[in-house]
Specification:
Jelly Rolls; six-stranded antiparallel β-sheet; mainly beta; five-stranded antiparallel β-sheet
Length: 184
């Protein structure tokens, strides 16, 4: 039987469930939680008609890259857009949480709620619009980027939520792990 090398350089036998005899495995993303390098952020905002909430994500100029997924919901007509490489400035710093609540490792990203200054939001790289005319959660928007996007180093991103209806209850969830790129 072959043995796999673990991250702590010890060799261990693959684990088999005692009752089902199936291999016990976790996803890579789940592994990153245990390694203390997985992070999350959530927010809820009620927006009026034509109301906008921006979230500015800034990546450092390192090869530790964020592998991110995100989702946004709106209880009525809602547009979600992701812009890359703008020159705006973030205004209100947000708290990023480590998914391993016992870990003291901090994210390399910075996250701000709202932005100001600059002349451009950047290039629109992802968008979704949906929802019903009334904010009654009957057919609201659920926008998911479930396939991870590896954010470019030294780059500013704006995740924008725009309401097309009054009293629109919106939610944003960002989830990512940070992994050092190994270039060839």
């Amino acid at each position: 039987m072959s043995y796999g090398k673990t991250s702590d350089a010890e060799r261990q036998m693959p684990r088999i469930d005692a009752s089902t005899h199936s291999m016990q495995v976790i996803t890579y993303e789940h592994h990153e939680i245990h390694a203390g390098s997985h992070f999350f952020y959530t927010d809820s905002v009620e927006l009026g008609s034509a109301g906008v909430q921006d979230y500015m994500i800034t990546t450092p100029n390192t090869t530790k890259w964020a592998h991110m997924t995100f989702s946004a919901t709106g209880s009525a007509i809602t547009t979600v857009q992701l812009y890359e490489a703008g020159d705006r400035n973030g205004t209100t710093a947000q708290t990023i949480r480590n998914s391993d609540r016992n870990s003291l490792t901090a994210s390399v990203l910075t996250l701000h709620k709202a932005q100001s200054g600059g002349t451009t939001d950047g290039t629109l790289i992802w968008t979704m619009k949906s929802g019903s005319a009334s904010a009654q959660s009957r057919a609201g928007l659920t926008a998911n980027r479930s396939d991870e996007i590896i954010l470019k180093q030294a780059t500013k991103y704006i995740l924008r939520v725009t309401s097309g209806t009054a009293a629109n209850l919106t939610n944003v969830q960002l989830s990512w792990y940070e992994h050092t790129n190994r270039t060839a």
